[in-house]
Write a structure and sequence with these properties.
Blueprint: H1 19-31, E1 35-37, E2 43-45, E3 48-49, E4 53-56, H2 57-78, H3 81-87, H4 89-94, H5 96-109, E5 110-111, E6 114-115, E7 121-133, E8 137-144, H6 151-167, H7 169-173, E9 182-183, H8 188-210, E10 223-227, H9 236-246, E11 251-255, H10 257-260, E12 264-266, E13 272-274, E14 278-279, E15 282-285, H11 306-316, E16 321-323, H12 326-331, H13 334-342, H14 355-362, E17 368-370, H15 373-381, E18 388-391, E19 400-402, H16 405-412, E20 422-425, E21 436-440, E22 443-447, E23 450-461, E24 464-465, E25 472-481, E26 495-497, E27 499-502
Parallel strand pairs: 4-27, 7-16, 10-11, 10-15, 15-16
Antiparallel strand pairs: 1-2, 3-21, 5-6, 7-8, 7-23, 9-27, 12-13, 13-14, 17-20, 18-19, 18-20, 21-22, 23-24, 23-25, 25-26
Protein name: glutathione synthase
InterPro entries: Glutathione_synthase, Glutathione_synthase_a-hlx, Glutathione_synthase_C_euk, Glutathione_synthase_N_euk, GSH-S_sub-bd_sf, GSH_synth_subst-bd, PreATP-grasp_dom_sf
Cofactor: Mg(2+)
Length: 503
């Protein structure tokens, strides 16, 4: 489905919001936890837009319809261990971290001739990121199956803009592209917390009823473990989720892999036990997507990061809901995204999708190409290198190469490294028709070329959707100047944003 917007030239002007409006918006953000932690344990608010982006309602409704189908597909691919081990073997040879993940996957699930049945229950909390391309419509940028956070910030950004619309109606309307637009409902925090709570309650009930002789009175408070990075700054987004879980009767604890390496043990019936806490029902990884998360300077290891990655393996060998499993992390990789893009729609029947569902999925997948000698030769002759982006298997920002830099990077790769990379059609979303204000560190900056990325959250537990909308669970909008390649909220020029719809 194509976007109905076209970009137009904008005239730069001076910021117009008052200091009072700026102060109140910044204070609202801090007061509601839309913040990063500083090294001295104080907080700074996340950068945000003063007004939302606009999308045609049919485009958004199409994404809400197709994204749960993508999640259904990824969920089933993640449990197709023959497919993952066969198709990702070459990538493992090209990328050391991927090699470790696939090795751990083998330890959990065995090989094709001797499959193992793991005790863990898959909880797929996924964020699918899109850009609404000017020509081709909304297309997937990437799947995020591990550390797919910021649903709390997504909901809070919507609430922030609702606050500004109420308190500063004239000023707020001045930044809207369409005066009759309607805020798109966003319950990302609420829905994600509800999904996790359902999984926690189900696992806790398993031990209370199935494993305790049918005596439901032995059930303890369901417990949620968040695996975090040491001294990270993005703790408030995490704490917002924890508070929402606590309000649903879920106990929450936080640990690093280093802490868990000496605190986990096995209870009766493969119960995962955390020292000083007891049984764990859900493990949610906000770490584990990069080698650094498994590195401990105190450990002298013959194989880098083996001990802490074995801690993650230990978790998956227990009866506990896990996000993300090794399988989910592999299934949401750039290589699997490329394989699903290249294969015909009919091939999706392997994972139970109808042809109609497969074509819906295909409608949002941008063209991708594997890296080989033919692709490199083709790209070096390509007249417009700005139409492509080169990606490796890394998660988060800083893993993409753009434009003319792609040829230099491709020519520097050895054949052994080819399978760790892929070319993808570059997406060019429409620039916002009305310039807006970006607020960073309580200071305002005029932006007249803002473009946006929308991430849709979905939740599946043990193969089934766990929200009323077939697994859909809210959204996250991040915007950036069109001239910037890196749009991360942490490391790039990205700002939090929200969404309004027009018919």
């Amino acid at each position: 489905m194509k976007s109905l917007f076209q970009p137009r030239a904008l005239t730069q002007s001076k910021p117009t919001i008052s200091q009072q409006m700026l102060n109140e918006a910044s204070e609202w953000a801090i007061m509601h936890g839309v913040a990063f932690r500083r090294d001295d344990n104080t907080a700074r608010h996340c950068p945000f837009s003063i007004a939302p982006m606009t999308m045609q309602r049919p485009v958004f409704e199409h994404l809400i319809k197709v994204t749960p189908l993508l999640t259904k597909l990824i969920d089933r691919v993640s449990e197709d261990h023959d497919f993952l081990q066969t198709q990702l073997a070459d990538v493992a040879k090209a990328d050391p971290f991927f090699e470790r993940l696939l090795s751990l996957h083998h330890q959990v699930h065995g090989s094709k001739n001797q499959r193992l049945t793991p005790a863990r229950k898959p909880l797929l909390l996924m964020r699918t990121d899109y850009m609404d391309d000017r020509e081709h419509g909304a297309k997937v940028i990437e799947f995020n199956g591990i550390a797919a956070g910021m649903a709390p910030f997504g909901q809070r950004a919507t609430e922030l803009h609702d606050f500004l619309r109420l308190q500063w109606p004239q000023e707020f309307e001045g930044f809207l592209e369409h005066k009759q637009s309607v805020s798109a409902d966003n319950k990302g925090l609420t829905q994600l917390a509800s999904s996790i709570a359902q999984a926690a309650q189900k696992v806790a009930a398993d031990f209370a009823v199935k494993f305790s002789g049918g005596n439901a009175q032995t059930q303890t408070v369901p417990t949620f473990l968040m695996v975090v990075q040491e001294n990270e700054d993005n703790v408030y987004d995490q704490h917002l989720l924890e508070v929402a879980l606590q309000q649903r009767g879920i106990r929450t604890v936080r640990r690093t892999f280093e802490q868990l390496s000496s605190q986990l043990s096995t209870g009766d019936h493969q119960r995962l036990i955390l020292e000083g806490i007891g049984g764990i029902d859900v493990v949610y990884l906000r770490a584990g997507y990069q080698y650094a998360d498994y590195y401990s300077p105190q450990r002298d290891e013959a194989i880098c990061c083996e001990a802490l990655s074995q801690t993650r393996l230990f978790i998956e060998q227990h009866h506990v809901a896990v996000n993300a499993t090794f399988s989910q992390q592999l299934a949401t990789s750039k290589t699997v995204q490329m394989l699903l893009t290249i294969m015909p729609a009919e091939a999706y029947s392997r994972w139970g999708l109808t042809l109609e569902e497969a074509h819906l999925v295909k409608s949002v997948l941008a063209e991708m190409k594997p890296i080989n000698t033919d692709t490199i030769n083709w790209f070096n002759r390509h007249p417009n290198k700005q139409e492509w982006v080169l990606k490796n298997q890394g998660e988060g920002g800083g893993h993409c190469v753009f434009g003319k830099d792609i040829s230099a990077k491709l020519n520097s790769l050895t054949p052994k490294e080819y399978d760790a990379w892929a070319l993808m059609q570059r997406l060019f979303p429409h620039e916002r028709e009305v310039a807006t204000i970006a607020v960073r560190d309580s200071e305002q900056t005029w932006v007249n070329d803002l473009v946006s990325e929308i991430g849709l959250f979905t939740a599946y537990f043990d193969g089934q959707p766990v929200t009323a909308l077939n697994g859909y669970a809210g959204y996250l909008i991040r915007s950036k100047p069109a001239s910037e390649n890196e749009g991360g909220i942490h490391s790039g020029q990205g700002i939090l944003d929200s969404l309004v719809l027009v018919d």
